[in-house]
Design brief:
elongated, about 0% strand, mainly alpha, about 200 residues
């Protein structure tokens, strides 16, 4: 969050301060224990200011995750290219995905989101839906490659889910559920190459 350019307007600076404070509070205390009062105090603004920007804790938390997903997906070039080898394109896409999964803030907030979802099915459904939207790009890429005759799959969504599972089985769930360290770049490269080769051996 803090890597974004500093906003110039006072109201934008306050909003950014609230978001940064909320990230820290959610990471430190978890979703249930974090209050809008604590976020306001940490951000150095009034509680009314927090509510002027975000009507609820749920809305604030969703905005944090939305920004992280926006930041991760903004760098993705998911446009299928007829003139490039499939393997090279897929490796590039997976490397960008792995960069997000190595982000410490993302991992911590993912843990918070999962814990929050256990107590709030509505929030869990919303977060899962948003994550699904962010991962739709791979489905679109696979659909385009299939339409070009380079991949053979009647169900691009299913194929995309398989690819995500191949990566997350090493680079997301062990870290989130068992506290394992993030993959090193070399380990991520190994996972990506194996996932792409398995995928192409079946679908290409």
């Amino acid at each position: 969050m803090s890597s974004l350019p500093a906003p110039s307007r006072l109201t934008d600076r306050k909003r950014a301060a609230i978001l940064d404070a909320a990230v820290a509070e959610f990471r430190q205390s978890g979703y249930a224990a974090t209050s809008m009062d604590r976020i306001a105090a940490s951000a150095g603004v009034s509680k009314r200011t927090v509510y002027n920007h975000f009507p609820s804790k749920e809305a604030l938390f969703s905005q944090i995750l939305e920004q992280m997903w926006e930041r991760s997906s903004s760098a993705l070039d998911l446009v299928y290219r007829k003139d490039r080898p499939l393997r090279a394109q897929l490796l590039e896409l997976l490397e960008q995905k792995l960069q997000l999964l190595r982000d410490e803030n993302f991992a911590e907030l993912a843990r918070v989101a999962i814990a929050a979802g256990l107590h709030s099915p509505e929030l869990a459904q919303e977060l899962i839906a948003k994550m699904g939207d962010r991962e739709e790009g791979l489905t679109t890429w696979i659909r385009a490659a299939a339409a070009d005759g380079k991949l053979k799959t009647p169900d691009p969504s299913f194929a995309a889910m398989q690819m995500h599972a191949l990566v997350k089985g090493f680079a997301f769930w062990p870290q989130i559920a068992m506290g394992q360290p993030a993959l090193t770049p070399a380990q991520g490269k190994q996972v990506a190459e194996a996932a792409v080769d398995m995928f192409l051996s079946y679908y290409a």
